[in-house]
Amino acid sequence: MITVALFIPCYIDQFYPNAAKATLQLLEKLGVNVVYPPNQTCCGQPMANSGYEHLAAGCSKLFIENFAEYDYIVSPSGSCVLHIKEHLHPGETKAEADKIHHTIYELTEFLTDVLKIEHLNSSFPHKVGLHQSCHGQRGLKISQMSELNAPYFSKPGKLLGMVKDLELIDLSRPDECCGFGGTFCVSEEAISAKMGKDRISDHIQHHAEFITSADMSCLMHMEGLLNRQKSDVKVIHIAEILNGVAV
Question: Residues 174-191: pLDDT tens digits?
Fold first, then answer.
């Protein structure tokens, strides 16, 4: 049996623990031995996004100490996984860092590429809009970009297609950015908010009851805008749907 170390980003730990719990429960249901390194903390992405990547060296060192020994590392956050893949500072532990680069996975790519899941015993009787996050789509390549003349695929979409009673709606712009962008939403607040409003409008116009994604940070951004508009549309991490959460 493979052993997976669960990497839970700090904002999920603090604000959306149900996404973390669903990730753990789902992996265990699929026969994976899951452990949670208790000393894990921020991966350093906020510093890197703000132009202070050199200040993330301590985060990198701690990440390697916590995760290097395991077969795989899985996280319900595409943006944090991409940061580790592209910006993990090896320091004096290059071999361990190189291993992590090849063993860390975002949840949906782990389910499709490693476990090769073809069936899920879950149900979610709602109309759902899928938000393809930029980090997941353009960085981790978990779905195809519409501007490319290439066959379309979506690993999150494939998994949602296995969920009984779920209706995955078609969007006018299926891979539009939500405008969050980490610290971008702070430094360019007006642009970020407008992009987010356009993104949720697409889902609302196509009668989504829920917006889901492999990135809770994007959902957090859109949730704030939905709440300000007093919309009935809710956000939910894809792990909760795949795990069969009751709403």
Answer: 999 998 877 787 778 899
